[in-house]
Amino acid sequence: MVTIFYYDLMSPYAYLAAERIDRVLPRPPEWQPVLLGGIFKLTGRSSWALGDHDRRGRGMAEIETRAEQQGLPPLRWPDPWPSTSLAAMRMAVYARRAGREREFAAAAFSTAFAEGKDLRELHHVLDSAEAAGLDRDDAEEGIADPSVKDELRRATGEAHARGVFGVPTVAVGDELFWGDDRLEEAAAALARSGSA
Q1: Sheet strand arrangement including 169-172
Q2: Cβ(154)–Cβ(92) under 8 Å?
Q3: How many Cα atoms sit within 13 Å of 190 on the Cβ side?
Q4: What are the beta bridge partners of residue 177?
Q5: What is the CATH number of the domain that holds 85?
Q6: Helix (H), strand (E) counts: the chain
Q7: Domain of 51?
Q8: What is the residue-level pLDDT of the chain in tens, covering all 196 positions?
Q9: Long-range contacts, stretch 47-56, CB < 8 angstroms, 24+ apart
């Protein structure tokens, strides 16, 4: 049974999920970059972090606590956050084609949430690509490739059509599990399917 991990590098919850997904699921999922801003546009929603100031503060404190509980470095927030993840997510598509997606995602998540650097800035995205073993110049050219842009747009549209309305989401067959706190449920569904 196909298991897919939908993520966007601007999401701290996706960061938390990415850090533990391989320990929780009985086998590694396929990673699928999607543009969360595109999903929000398709669903008519927006980020919880852009709304009520108190809710934003509570959400950020909760994420910091979860990161600490997972033994991750103290969470540092990019300023501003959230911002656009377009270049970073195009780079994730490029890195996927180059066989370095997980390495790039790990470097980019760390850049954003361990170092507090804004992935809206291309040089931070390129630093992450280089840290993942990608050639910096090739990577910069790669994210300008129309086929990379089209692939991200298509993957985002397909995720929305499937019912994905936020990240992280893990799809186990036809079941969707949204949130980093639902990885265990996804693992149980995978085990029940007999394909773990």
Answers
A1: 30-33, 3-7, 169-172, 175-178
A2: no
A3: 24
A4: 170
A5: 3.40.30.10
A6: 9, 4
A7: 3-192
A8: 899 999 999 999 999 999 999 999 999 999 999 999 999 999 888 777 777 778 899 999 999 999 999 999 999 999 999 999 999 999 999 999 999 999 999 999 999 999 999 999 999 999 999 999 999 999 999 999 999 999 999 999 999 999 999 999 999 999 999 999 999 999 999 998 875 5
A9: 47/82, 49/81, 49/82, 50/82
Q: How many domains does the chain have?
A: 1
Q: What pTM, to 2 d.p., does this model score?
A: 0.95
Q: Sort residue 127 into left (φ over 0), alpha (ψ -120 to 50) or beta.
A: alpha
Q: In the structure encoding, which two tokens stand for residue 154, read together? A: 């298509």
Instruction: Check if the beta carbon of residue 40 is closer than 8 Å to that of residue 47.
Output: yes
Residue 64: CB atoms within 10 Å: 17
Say which residue the tokens 């397909």 belong to: 158
